[in-house]
């Protein structure tokens, strides 16, 4: 199996005694640590216009991470594609791919916050068409070959992205949560970044939608390797693991709820921050516990879903640097060797 680390959002938090310069410095240290203990990849997320300074430029952060590492892959999870010119996204990806000597993975998402679309001057109504055309353009641009494209939102004539990427092409992943987006990824044949809030049954449905659409489009769904994101908190002490899982994961989900993320627990949609179902949010979707507990959870994903790549979300915005580093080291030394 493969394991990733993230999501790096470089957010400030009232409980932390440092600001963004130290947060970015800490992130570089955490990626170097993850590389040293056997993680395969590190993933950076994107948001805009948030008070905590959530990273708006994954490609810039990825370049910095690539420059201080030598073997771990660096990925975006993901760039909000409909807000961008897809050729510009391809150019940034090509630069990072050169800095990393072929270690960049490009993950793109649709985005869901109206504030981001308004701030960038893009209509939310254009999301599907800009995503559709953006994926088509990226597929051509990332190959390094000259291409033309004429669509409703984008037009390019005899365009060649330079510098040429090291990888031909750069791997492209699609983060999708709703059925139309999942089916779109299947139609294009790009592997999924499966969100961390999905339960096992929801992941199974996700794979079903993807496989169905891929087969209709003449793609082989077995030819791709999806990545499952999982909220993760590990400690040699089970009580400390449960305490950390509650403090850093559940509270983070309460924050995401305020951003407009829809959440379902036991088949019902959460209605507010005081919804009692929040108490059961961790069921069947998070990796929390001792290394032995986590090994069993990971084996379940592998054996029941066929998942062979998990990106562990353990970079929590309110967690101090030493707590995050402790999780990375414990996971790398106590869990990863069990699957190699």
Characterization of the model:
By secondary structure, the chain is of the alpha/beta class. The chain has ten helices and 14 strands. The protein has helices at 20-36, 58-67, 86-99, 114-120, 127-141, 179-188, 200-216, 238-258, 291-305, 321-334, and strands at residues 2-8, 41-44, 73-76, 79-80, 104-109, 147-150, 155-159, 172-175, 192-194, 227-234, 264-265, 268-269, 286-289, 309-313. The protein has an eight-stranded parallel β-barrel with strand order 1-2-3-5-8-9-10-14, surrounded by seven helices. The chain has a two-stranded antiparallel ribbon with strand order 6-7. The model has no long low-confidence stretch (mean pLDDT 95).
SS summary, helix count: 10
- Report the helical percentage: 40-55%
Regions with pLDDT < 50 over 5+ consecutive residues?
Answer: none
The spatial strand order of the largest sheet comes to: 1-2-3-5-8-9-10-14
- Residue share in β-strands: 15-25%
Mean pLDDT: 95
The count of strands amounts to: 14
Please compute the radius of gyration using only Cα atoms: 19 Å
Which structural class do the helices and strands define?
alpha/beta
H/E topology pattern: EHEHEEHEHHEEEHEHEHEEEHEH
For the sheet with most strands, the description reads: 8 strands, parallel, barrel
Shape: globular
Distance between the termini: 7 Å
